[in-house]
Design brief:
This protein is mainly α. The protein has one domain. The chain contains four helices and no strands.
Length: 82
């Protein structure tokens, strides 16, 4: 997999600049962007999983809407993200 195909860096940059810059929550728009970046090539590689794991570790069920939390749980289960 080339660097162009792996979106780990873009995920980390987006999380730092957009998701966590002003608050510690992931709203629906931010979650959908993270998901779009991670799935842009149809797979979630090991580097992308590590970044998503770090991002998702910063939020909990109380800091997200029910829909976003369910999306996080589903993404974690589907791609074996801790």
């Amino acid at each position: 997999m080339t660097d162009d195909e792996c979106k780990a860096r873009e995920l980390a940059e987006y999380a730092f600049l957009e998701v966590f810059a002003d608050d510690e929550i992931i709203d629906e728009t931010e979650f959908l962007m993270l998901k779009r970046l991670a799935l842009s090539d149809g797979i979630v590689d090991a580097a992308e999983r590590r970044v998503l794991e770090r991002i998702f570790a910063r939020v909990d069920q109380r800091s997200c809407s029910a829909e976003v939390w369910q999306g996080i749980v589903q993404l974690k289960e589907r791609f074996e993200i801790d």
